[in-house]
Design brief:
Blueprint: H1 9-14, H2 19-28, E1 34-39, E2 43-48, E3 56-61, E4 66-69, H3 79-89, H4 100-127, H5 164-194, H6 204-216, H7 220-230, H8 239-258, H9 265-275, H10 281-285, E5 290-304, E6 307-316, E7 322-330, E8 343-351, E9 360-365, E10 370-371, H11 381-394, E11 401-411, E12 417-421, E13 424-427, H12 435-441, E14 447-454, E15 457-465, E16 468-471
Antiparallel strand pairs: 1-2, 2-3, 3-4, 5-6, 5-8, 6-7, 8-9, 8-10, 11-12, 11-14, 12-13, 14-15, 15-16
């Protein structure tokens, strides 16, 4: 059995009002939980067998789309309508004769749409072309003065308020994203086919065209990543390896983003975040927090497309969990100093949905940031690199991983420096300019150093030496 043309699991999940609804929808998309599920060209319907005495009656107008469910949820669409649509997308809902409640609802919608179309046609004949709702839009009841008044929720419809235009926009965005990802994958294949020595790779226009297409497709996360890859071309003798590795990561994200609906939910959330989908702040703060004493380990800033991005790294004193708090400011504007490096605070942290719990928001703060003379609990270089490796294995597109180690700075061949202990060493990033200061701090004894690990090496951000804080 094949699904109706144009409906995919990714399109369905794009309709979810929040991540919680998307997760719950997966649990309802089980054929054994449905009775008399069916579909035709216009709609889909079924009865969801819940814990209530009566099953929930669910119907979906596939043309708009619009939804009807007898459950008490206020979310539109609710998890039951999303679950039914996931079954439709998977081809697990057969064509069948409509159930009575679904037939009445779909016919009422069709009649109202036909009446609205007739009224628009009459106005067009009389006054010329006018703007009006789409052919399948729900017509709002007319007031006494002939003006349109807001449509009321149907009694007993539960989460069945019709939200055609917003949901249509969500599906249109999903289609744009999918087309943008397909085009990106073709562009990547062309780059590899032409070879990294091709002259056009050094031309900014080659990359700008790809960036512009991703921006048009609302894939802002990937657009910024392509810009960062373009900045690596010709920078040093290793740039070919670096660019090829980044092109491979972009291929992974383009492939995964195009079939996010087939992925495990936490992985799908991570892919969507990397592509450029955003999660509302209120939805993140609605999640279950982790309460801890949080060490502010350091922060770094970069500029992306005239926007300053600040990364602030926190480490839980008891949970040992890492958290990344991002803040943004337009170029030329200043960022607030809410989380100074080298401080500690008691607070709730809420994580964004992803396979790797890393990016977070600070919720309730139970204390103001206070001085942190000794820093977070450090690990050995070996154990810290193993932890970073697990992070990258969970999300291979992760560009930076946090580390907190105890070590000494030491020179190696070729003018490079490393941070070393008895278990291993970390090459310092070439962009790190305060090697002499770090070497002086560690001349006699190892110190606690927190920073970012990336393909460029380890970038120290903060050090604690004998109760003294040094922001690097």
């Amino acid at each position: 059995m094949s699904p109706p043309a144009g409906i995919s699991a990714g399109d369905v999940l794009a309709l979810a009002p929040d991540e919680a609804a998307a997760r719950a929808a997966r649990a309802t998309a089980v054929p054994s939980s449905w009775s008399a599920a069916g579909r035709d060209d216009a709609g889909a319907w079924g009865r969801y067998i819940a814990t209530a005495a009566e099953p929930y009656e669910v119907a979906v107008d596939l043309r708009d789309p619009a939804f009807r469910c007898s459950c008490p949820s206020r979310k539109v669409p609710c998890k039951h309508t999303l679950g039914l649509l996931l079954l439709v997308a998977a081809g697990e809902v057969p064509e069948a004769r409509r159930l009575g409640f679904a037939h009445r609802w779909l016919m009422e919608r069709a009649e109202r749409a036909a009446s609205a179309a007739a009224r628009r046609a009459a106005r067009t004949d009389r006054d010329g072309p006018v703007a009006g709702p789409p052919a399948h839009a729900e017509a709002a009841p007319a007031g006494a003065d002939g003006a349109q008044t807001p449509a009321r929720r149907r009694i007993g419809a539960g989460s069945g308020g019709d939200t055609g235009p917003p949901n249509r926009r969500a599906m249109e965005r999903a289609a744009r994203v999918r087309a943008g990802l397909e085009e990106l994958d073709r562009w990547l294949a062309d780059r590899v086919r032409a070879g990294l020595a091709a002259p056009e790779l050094a031309e900014p226009a080659t990359w700008q065209r790809a960036v512009a297409r991703l921006v048009d497709a609302q894939c802002g996360g990937l657009a910024n990543r392509v810009l960062r890859v373009a900045g690596r071309v010709g920078t040093d003798e290793r740039w070919h390896d670096q660019v090829l590795a980044e092109l491979a990561v972009l291929h992974v994200l383009a492939s995964a983003g195009g079939r996010a609906g087939e992925l495990e939910l936490a992985l799908a959330d991570a892919v969507r975040g990397a592509v450029g989908y955003t999660v509302a702040r209120d939805d993140v703060l609605a999640g279950v927090p982790v309460t801890d004493c949080w060490h502010v380990c350091g922060r770094s800033e970069t500029e992306e497309n005239r926007v300053v991005v600040r990364r602030t790294w926190l480490r839980g004193a008891h949970s040992l969990a890492w958290a990344l708090v991002l803040s943004f400011a337009a170029f030329g504007e200043s960022l607030t100093d809410d989380l100074p490096s080298g401080t500690v605070l008691d607070a709730d942290l809420h994580w964004y949905p992803a396979r790797l719990r890393l990016r977070a928001l600070v919720g309730t703060m139970y204390s103001d940031p206070r001085a942190d003379p000794h820093g977070p609990p450090p690990g050995s270089i070996e154990s810290s690199l193993a932890e970073a490796g697990r992070m990258i294995a969970a999300e291979p597109w992760l560009e930076r991983a946090p580390l907190c180690v105890t070590g000494c700075a030491a020179p190696v061949a070729g003018g490079r420096w490393v941070l070393t202990d008895d278990t291993g060493s970390l090459p310092l990033a070439l962009g790190f300019r305060r090697v002499p200061e770090l070497a002086a701090l560690t001349a006699t004894d190892p110190v606690v150093v927190a920073g970012e690990w990336s393909a460029d090496g380890f970038l120290p951000l903060t050090a604690w030496a004998e109760g003294r804080l040094v922001v690097l």
